[in-house]
Amino acid sequence: MRVLVERLLREITEFVEQREDFVLLPAGSSDDTAILLAALRNVEQDLGSDVFLIFADDFVQSGPFVSVLVERLAEQVKVANQALAEERRTLFPDVPRELRDSSRAAPDRFRDAVVFSRALVPREGGHRVVWAICPAQIKNRVAYRELIAALAPTQGLQPWMAGVRLIFRDESADAADALSRTPRVRRLPLDFGPASLEGSLREEVEDSSRTEQERIQALLSVALLDSAHGRFAEANSKFMHLLGYYQQAKDLAMQAFVINAVGAVLHRTGDLPKAEEWFERAVPPAAEAKQPIILATIVRNLGDVAFERRNFSAAEQYYGQLDALSAHLLDPEGKVWALERRGLSFEKVGAMGKAVESWEGAAQLSRSIGLRTFLKTNLEHLERGYRHVRADAKLHSVQNELRDLHRAGEFE
Description:
The chain has 412 residues and is of the alpha/beta class.
């Protein structure tokens, strides 16, 4: 992520500072808009002598959209004038009335707003005005691109464009379309998807200009991605390197995290004895570091491995510990899950009375905080448990509750 964001910052900065192109089209999905906006704010801070006018309103139609931009511009001028008045400095002129005339063509009003905005910076000194139009949603892309095309310098740079840069977020960076081929219009593809993020992390690992801590953090992220995508040998190789680093740094919390990650890889590959061994190794550093969240994850993993190895007595104890840790962490979902699994462990060793007690606790907590899916699951366990212990009245009550849940349309 860091590499991708730094690249975006460089591209925006270079566009603002160059003098050949007038329009920049950062193109990507709506999911990329927040990152683009954050990058623009960063560039704004770095280029303190320039004025950035950044807008993120949804686009539906050109006329109403430009009206909103004008109102936003008027608000910014008003705020700026209040500050100038307190400092007894010369005020900016008010937004001209004709900019608010909705009977005028939207591109004309936009162009006049840009011309007016030049009054917000000194004429001398190379100051620029940057208009960044970044709609979170572009609901009429044809109209949106028509507005951009009307402002693009198809006839070359015009006097009103001096000292101005226009940035429009778009949804596609097709190099073959007419707008992208317009002179002095620059395309900037945005891609913060999983593949790009992974590639940037791998670049960061190899980047000798980074601090060791930055490269280690990137390596950890890549190792976790390797594990998530089933590249287990690659993941474990990286985890071993990371473990050595954190042991040398005496970072107990991260030692526990990485050891648990190795156990998780072994668990997914089906090597349950070794997975259990690594999970057990993770407990002491997590406990010594006083990291209850990491410890809860490790204990849950130990419970799962014990259950899969049919060591149900050990599993019940681990899930009991997870129940206590979840209560300490104020994690109701974790507590409900632990109670359910503890009940299943009791059931496997024939202690149905204790199993029912555990599921009752899980069901009651699920009711109290609205965990419908958890409630249904535990009611189904209780239906089986009450039938086994012949608690007919409770069985009838649970069956009615399950029927009401289905009748309410919670589970179709």
